[in-house]
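User: Hey, my collaborator sent me this sequence without any context and asked if I could get a structure. I don't really work with proteins. Can you help?
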Amino acid sequence: MAGDLGRRVAVAGVGIPVGVAVVYLGGWPLTLTVALLAVVGTRESYGLARARGWRPFEGFGLAMAMALILAAGVLRSYEAWSPLALALFLLVTLGVLTGAVFRRGPTGDPLLAAGTTLLGLGYAALPLAFAVFLRELPEQMAGVPVSGWAATHLLFFPLVITWLGDTFAYFTGKHLGRRKLIPSVSPKKTVAGSVGGISGAALGAVVFAFLFLGPDAVHTLPLPVAALLGATLGAVAQVGDLAESVLKREAGVKDSGALLPGHGGVLDRFDAIYFTLPLSYLAFPFLLV
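Assistant: No problem. I've predicted the 3D structure and written it out in C-alpha cell form, which is a compact way to encode the shape of the chain:
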C-alpha cells in the first residue's frame, strides 16, 4: 500500500507540472498531448472490449481518435470543428459497418465490434477535444487577444474542480463514509463521500472564481453561479467515475491500463474529465459576464 502511494505521488509530482506547462503553452503542445491521451484512452477502451472477447476495429478507431483531436487543434473552435467531427464520425460508422460485413460476418459479433469501436471514440476521444476549445475560448469570447495565465483559466477551472471534488470525496468517504453509494458498481464509494465531493467542488469553484474570474479578470463568474456550476461539475464527475467503474466491472479488470504507476491507465485518471470538460465548455458562454 505504501509503495502504491509512493508511485502515485511520484507520478503526480511529474504529471502536474508537465500538465500545467502544456496548458499554459496551449497551441500544438496542448493539441499533441491531448491527441496522445485520446489515442491511449481509446486503445484502453478497446482493451476492455477485448477482455470480454469482443473485437473492435482498433486500427481504424485509433486513427480516427488522432484525427479528431488534430482537427480540433487546426480549427481551434467547436463551431468550425463540429461539422468535420460529425463527418468523421459518420465515416467511422460506415467504415466499421463495412468491416463488419467483410471481416466479421453474422457469426463474428458484428454488432459488438461496431458498437465498441464507436463507443471508444465517443467516450475517450471526442470529449478531450474540448480541452483544446476551452484553451481558445477566452480569446474567442473576448474578441481580443488574451495571453498568459488569463488564457488558461477556463480550461483550468474544470480540471481543478474535478480534482478537488475527487479529493474531498476520498477523504470524506474515508472518515465519514458508512452507507455505500452503488456497491454493485463501486463498492468503496459512499453517500458521504459523494456529498463531500460535490460540496468540495462547489467550494473550490467559489475560491477559483474569486481568485481568477473576479470583476477585474477578462471574464467574470459570479460567486453564486460558480458554486452552482462547481456542484454540478462535482456531481457529473462522479457519474464519469462510476461509468468507467461499471465498464471495468463488466470487463473483469481492476484498471484500464498500467501507463501511470499507482493510478492505472488513462481512463482511470481521466474518467471524470471526459464528463466535465464538455459540460464546462457548454456552460461558460451562458454563465460568464
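In plain terms: Residues 2-287 form one domain. You can pass these C-alpha cells on to your collaborator as they are.
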